[in-house]
Amino acid sequence: MQKYAESGAKVFAISTDNGPSQKAFSESLGLSFPLLSDFVDRHVSEEYGVFIPKFAIANRVTFVIDQEGKISFIESGGDALKMVGAPDACSRLAHKKTG
User: Fold this and answer.
1) Is this structure's pTM higher than 0.70?
2) Is residue 9 part of a domain?
3) How far, CA to CA in Å, does 51 sit from each of 14, 42, 76, 85?
4) Residue 89: CA atoms inside 13 Å, Cβ hemisphere, count?
5) Does residue 80 fall inside a structural domain?
6) Is residue 98 assigned to a domain?
7) Rounded to an integer, what distance in angstroms lies between the CA atom of residue 12 and that of residue 10?
8) Which domain range does residue 40 map to?
9) What does the alpha-carbon distance between residue 27 and residue 82 come to, in Å, rounded to a whole number?
10) Residue 58's pLDDT band (cuts 50, 70, 90)
11) How far is CA 82 from CA 31, 64, 65, 70, in A?
């Protein structure tokens, strides 16, 4: 989280879980960033191309979005859970902004 803060990035998560489930999940892990729900219509998941209709869930993906709203980095699969490359991507954005 320190890397994100240093780069000026804002961190939040979106899932297809309902609000109460997200609250319990966040509290159990002591998360310091907001969890947003795409439970009702799955619109965000569909727009980002991560919705899996067969299971009515979203695939786990990390997106780094620049200040113009453009996706500059995508991480999926197991790396999305570990967020291996996202801190570096955020740092690159911070350098691009100041450069």
Assistant:
1) yes
2) yes
3) 12, 7, 13, 22
4) 18
5) yes
6) no
7) 7
8) 2-93
9) 19
10) very high
11) 15, 14, 18, 22
Q: 84: domain CATH number?
A: 3.40.30.10
Does residue 99 belong to any structural domain of this protein? no
pLDDT of residue 83: 67
Count other Cβ atoms within 10 Å, centred on residue 18. 11
Report the chain's mean pLDDT, rounded to a whole number.
85
pLDDT in tens, 13-49: 899 999 999 999 999 989 888 999 999 999 999 999 9
How large a percentage of the chain has pLDDT more than 70? Answer: 89
Return the percentage of the chain with pLDDT > 90, whole number. 41
Residue 94: is it exposed, middle or buried by C-beta count within 10 angstroms (0-12/13-18/19+)? middle
How many distinct structural domains can be found in the chain? 1
Residue 58 exposed, middle or buried by CB count within 10 Å (0-12, 13-18, 19+): buried
